[in-house]
Amino acid sequence: MNQPVRTTLQKHSERLVPFVGRGPVDVHRRPRQVALRVGGVVALLVLLLVAGQVLDIARLLTLEEALALAAFAMASNLLIGYGGLVSFGQAAFFGIGSYTVALGWLHWQLSFWLALVIAPLIGGAVAGIIGLLALRSRRLYFALLTLAFSQLCYVLAQERYTFTQGANGVIGPMLPDSLIDPRHAYLFVLAVAAAAALVLWKITTSPFGLVLRATRENRERMQALGVNVFGHQLLAFVISGAFCSLAGVLFVVYSQSAYPELLDWTQSGYAVYMVVIGGMFTFLGPALGAGVYTFANQYLAQHTSDWQLILGLILLVIVLFRPDGLAGLLSPRPWRSAARRLQARFGQQEDSTTDTTDPDRTTGELP
Amino acid sequence: MRTLILDVVGILATAGSLFIVSSGLTLVFGAMRLINVAHGSFYMLGAFVMTTVAANSAGARFWVAVAAATVVVAVLSVVVEVSVMRRIYASDHLTHLLATFAVSLIVADLALRVWGSGGRSVREPSVATGAVSLGGATFPAYDLVLIAAAFAVGLGLWLLLTRTPFGWRIRAAVDDPELLSCTGTRLSLLRTGVFMLGAALAAFAGALVSPQVTVAPGMDTAIIVSAFIVAVIGGLGSIPGAALGALIIGVAETLGASYAPSWSSSFMYLAMIAVLVMLPSGLLGRAER
Q1: Fewer CB within 10 Å: C terminus or N terminus of chain A?
Q2: Is the CB of residue A173 less than 8 Å from the CB of residue A43?
Q3: What's chain B's average pLDDT?
Q4: Cα B11 from chain centroid?
Q5: SS3 state at A258
C-alpha cells in the first residue's frame, strides 16, 4: 500500500472514531487498561512457555493443536467479527497451508522453512481469486459462495489422487529434524502463533482495521464517505486467507500429515464455532474458543462418546443466551448490568459508578 | 438412443431425490428466512427410522416405513422448532446458521447412539425390484419410484401453496408476516407447520433413497451441501427454482459420472459458483430484503 492511500485511510479513521468505539476493541484506551492488557498477554505467554516445559507430551500435543487452531480462529475472526463477513470457507485456506507443506515435501522435497514462507502467499493468492468472486454477493449468499469454493478445494484434494493421494492424505516425515522433538515443535508453534496474533492485532487496530469495522457497522455510510468498501473487504479476505494458511502450516507441525477433511465445510464450521463460543467481539476470544474446543474435544473423546452432543449444546446455549461468547462472560460488563438490574428491582441506588450509558457495550446484536 | 434413455432416467432419478430434499429447505427459507443446516439431519433421521421400521421387508411394510419415517421426523421437528427455532427467527443469518448447526451436531450424536456407526441398508419394495428394459436400455426399476415421488411432491406442493388456505397463508407470510398476523393468523403456529412440512419432506426423501444408498452417519453433512447448492442455484425460497436446480445438478452429476468420473463431484460446485457469480440471487430467486 503506497503512502497517499495510507493518509486517506488515516483521515477516514479520524472521522470514524465516534462510531467505531462500539467494536471489538477500543481505539483510545486509558493507560491503566493498556498496562493491564499488556500484563495479561505477557502473563499468558509466560504461562504457555512454562507449560511447554512442564506438561506431559500428550497434553503438550493438545496444547500445540489448540495453538494452531487458535491462529486459525483469530485469522477467521478478522472476517467474521471485524469485517462482519461470515465465511464458511476458511477451511480451504487452512487446508491449502497444510497441503503446501505436505505436497511440497512429497513432490519436490521442498524444505519446510520455505513452505512456511510460501504457504501464506499461496493462501493469500487463492483468497484473492475467491474473494474477487465471492465478495460480489452479500451476507448469506457470500457464506454459501465461500462454502462452495472450499468444497471445491475439498473435492479436488480428494479426487486428484495422483497429486494429493486422495482420501488417505499425505503422511510422512515432512518436518525438519529440529522440529522432531515435541518440545521444540511446541515452542516453534507458540512463537509463530504469537507472532501471527501480534500482526493480526496490529492490523485490526490500524486505520485499515478501523475502516473494516466501520464497513461492518454501516456499509452505506462508509461508501458515502468515499471508502472503497469492496477493496477493504477484499484485502481483509486476502489477509485472513494468508493467516489461515499459516495456521494450516502450524497444524502440520502437530499432525505431521495433510488430509482432505482439513478442507471440508465442517472444518470451516468449527472455525466459526471457535470464534463464536470464544467471543467474536474480542480479539483473543476466538483463541479462547479454540482452546476450549480442543481441550473439550480431547477430554470428551476420551471419557464419553457424546462429545458432539456436548459441543452442540454449548454452541446452542451460547447462540441463544450469550451471543458475545465466553469472553463476553469473562468481561465485567454483563455482571455489572446484572447488578444494575437487581438494583433497579430492589430500588437501591448506592453504586453510582455503574454508568448506564456505557458507550462500548457490545449488545447482543451480531453483525 | 440407449445411452440417451439411460442418461435421462439417471438424471431424473438423481434430480428427483435432490428436489424432494431441497424443496423442504427452500420452502422453510422462503416462508421464514431461516437457513436450516439441520435439514440434513432430518434427512438422515428419516433414512434411519426407515431402516428400523422396514427391517429388510420388501412387502407393504416398506411403504408403511416410509410413512412412519416421515411422521416420526415431523413430530421430532416440532420439538426442535418449539424449543430452539422459535427463539431465533428474529435474529440474523449467522445465528440461524449456528443454532441449526448446533442442532445438527446434537442430532448426529443422538443418531449415532441409537443406530451405531455401521452402515445399514433397506431392500427395495417388491413392486420395484430388479431392472426395467425400455428401448434397449436397462435401468433400476426403483429409479421410476423416485421420479414418480418427485413429481408427486412437486404437484402436491403446488396444490398446497395455490389451492389451500394454509398455502395462501404461507405465501402471505413470505410477503408480509406482520400484515398476516393482523388478519388473525397465528404466525407461530404457521411457522411450526412450515418447519414441520420442510422436515417431513427431508425425511420422506431420506426414507425413499435408503434402498439405493448405505444409510450411515455422515449422510447429514453430505446431503445438506447438495441440498443447499440445489436451492441456491434455483434461488432460495423458490420451489420451481429448486426443481430447476435439481435438474441442473442431476445433469452435472449423471453426465459427469459417465463422461469424466474423476471430476464428477467438482461440477456441482462449479455450477453453483457460475450461477451465483452471474446471478447473485440464483436463477429464479428474489433479491434478499
Answers
A1: N
A2: no
A3: 86
A4: 16
A5: strand
Alpha carbon separation from B153 to B23, B149, B160 (Å, rounded): 9, 6, 10
| A172 vs B99, more confident | B99
Question: In this structure, what DSSP letter does residue A130 have?
Answer: H
Return the bridge partners of B138, or none. Answer: B133
Residues in chain A with CB shorter than 8 Å from the CB of B94 are: 80, 86, 366-367
| Cell numbers standing for residue A335 | 455482571
- Map residue B249 onto helix, strand or coil: helix
C-alpha cell at A211: 475502516
Neighbours of A239 (CB within 10 A): 23
Q: Which 8-state DSSP code applies to residue A88?
A: S
Asked if residues A287 and A111 have their Cβ atoms less than 8 Å apart, the reply is no
What are the backbone dihedrals phi and psi of residue A262, each rounded to the nearest 5 degrees, phi first? -65, -20
ipTM greater than 0.85, yes or no? no
Q: What is chain A's Cα-based Rg?
A: 21
- The residue of chain B with its CA nearest to that of A315 is B102
The answer to whether residue B3 neighbours chain A at the CB level (below 8 Å) is no
For residues B257 and B251, give the distance between their C-alpha atoms in angstroms, rounded to a whole number. Answer: 10
C-alpha A82: how far from chain center: 10
Which pLDDT score is estimated for A2?
Answer: 43
Round to whole Å and give the CA distance between A189 and A192: 5
Q: Which residue has the cell 473487504?
A: A233
A26: left (phi over 0), alpha (psi -120 to 50) or beta: beta
CA B87 to CA B163: how far, in whole Å? 31
CA angle B121, B126, B129 (to 5 degrees): 75
| Mean pLDDT (whole number) for B77-83 | 91
Range with the lowest mean pLDDT among A110-119, B197-206, B253-262? B253-262
pLDDT at A353 over 50: no
Read off the pLDDT of each residue in B209-215 and give the average, rounded to a whole number: 85
3-state class of A362 per DSSP? coil
CA distance A242 to chain B (A): 22
> Region B219-238: what's the mean pLDDT?
87
Q: Do A156 and B266 touch (CB under 8 A)?
A: yes
Vertex A201: Cα angle to A197 and A203 (nearest 5): 120
Alpha-carbon distance A318 to nearest alpha carbon in chain B (angstroms): 9
Q: Which of residues 214-253 of B touch A (CB under 8 A)?
A: 221, 225, 228-229, 232, 236
Contact call for A140 and B109, based on CB within 8 A: no
Distance CA B6, CA B137 (A): 6
Distance CA A332, CA B201 (A): 46
B110 touches chain A (CB under 8 A): yes
* Helices within B33-92 (DSSP H only): 39-54, 61-80, 86-88
The Cα A241–Cα A120 span in angstroms is 8
Q: Chain centroid to CA A152: how far?
A: 22
Q: What is the pLDDT of residues A242-300, one digit of tens each?
A: 999 999 999 998 888 888 888 888 888 888 888 888 888 788 888 888 888 888 888 88
